[in-house]
Amino acid sequence: MIKRNVNLSEKTTYKFGGLANYYLELKKGTEEELAKCRNLTNDIYILGNGSNIAFSDKGYPGMIIKSANNHIKLLPDNKLEVYSGASMPDIARFCYQNSLKGAEFMIGIPGTIGGGVLMNAGAYGASTADILSEVFSYNLVISREKIFKKEDLKFGYRTTEGLDGEFVYKVHLNIEPDDKKSIRLKQKEYLEHRKKTQPSGIYNAGSVFKNPKGLHSGELIERAGMKGYRLGTVSISEKHGNFFVADKNAKAIDLYNLVLHVKDVVYQKFAINLEEEIRFVGNFG
After folding, report:
1. pLDDT, tens digit, for every residue of 190-221?
2. Which of these three, 196, 221, 236, is where a domain ends?
3. How far apart, in whole angstroms, are the C-alpha atoms of residue 129 and residue 151?
4. 3-state class (DSSP) for residue 184
5. At 117, phi and psi to the nearest 5?
6. Which of 58, 55, 87 is nearest to 71 (CA)?
7. In sequence order, what are the residues at sequence separation of 6 or more whose Cβ sits closer than 8 angstroms to the Cβ of residue 249?
8. How many folded domains does the chain comprise?
């Protein structure tokens, strides 16, 4: 059911943002459901788990669509069928339970596979593209279902090209049988590293900036003397320079301004342009 004036602060890990004019959680992602959306507005934004998104305090004038289908199924020939609302940690746990390797890197990524495909999410030297086989989508512009093979798309560091205008409703992933103990050990190693190096239990959206080639954004920010720096209701983590944490009831505009300020400082000190990994959605002017 399409809802009106939904509070976007309840839909992201940062817990801020204004109202969405229209909001729909898709149960199946059928053509009938999507046709209702197009009849209301052409201004549609697809939301994953809200873990790398900052919505404007002014809200969103169009429609937010979020996949609520999180089904995971094991197919023949070492493939997983995963609907776009499934969280990446849940995929990693499913693989562990079924003695399958390939998705260990997903264990600590706080996003859905739909969002993971669209931004080629990854960690510890692995990315979504590494195990992707097919993408099943519905084109919101021409109203037609499509199937993309991995080779139909172009993947880069935290980028995927070729899915503009597409609502990804499910994917197929390539995985392989392996020893359950070794899978668990790798997942445990990744989780322990995240716990040691990244803030948890507070409002944040993971890494704010992509890492420049051969460098680490967090180190650059710390070398610039900005660790712990605060602007309004948002500050840079004392634990990791590339994580920005928000106060309860913080403002999205504070995050936006802090990001601009950090980019400026890092450029002035090192002549390096940081590129955002987090996405700002709506009017921040």
Report:
1. 999 888 888 776 777 778 999 999 999 999 99
2. 196
3. 10
4. helix
5. -70, -45
6. 87
7. 15, 16, 233
8. 3
